[in-house]
What we know:
Blueprint: H1 3-22, H2 25-30, H3 37-67, H4 73-95, H5 103-122
Helix pairs in contact: 1-3, 1-5, 3-4, 4-5
Amino acid sequence: MSGVALLYTASIVITIWGVAHVLPTRPVIAGFEPLTPDNRRVLTMEWVAEGMTLCFIGVLTLLATLLLESGAPGATLVYRASAGMLLVMAIWTLATGARTAVVMFKICPMIKTGVAALLLSGSF
């Protein structure tokens, strides 16, 4: 698979994963009930913020791939910084959510790490 194909794949996968993260917000939050109104708001905020962050990384890498020349320093920086952020998020998820019985939390670090690997591979 070519470097550009790896970058497009990474962009699409992490954007879809971000959307898949945001869509079930209501049932996810309901699974934590009973919550105080403030705790519900904070949990909702953080849940949606992670999904939006994943979408942002996907869209940013997609735009870099579409609009910047292959191998351009700015594009390379975007891919590698995004990969680094995804790895940090994967480690954080391993230390927290992946230790629960929820399957989505258990596979999340693998998806983030896999996308980071695609971004790094595509950036060379």
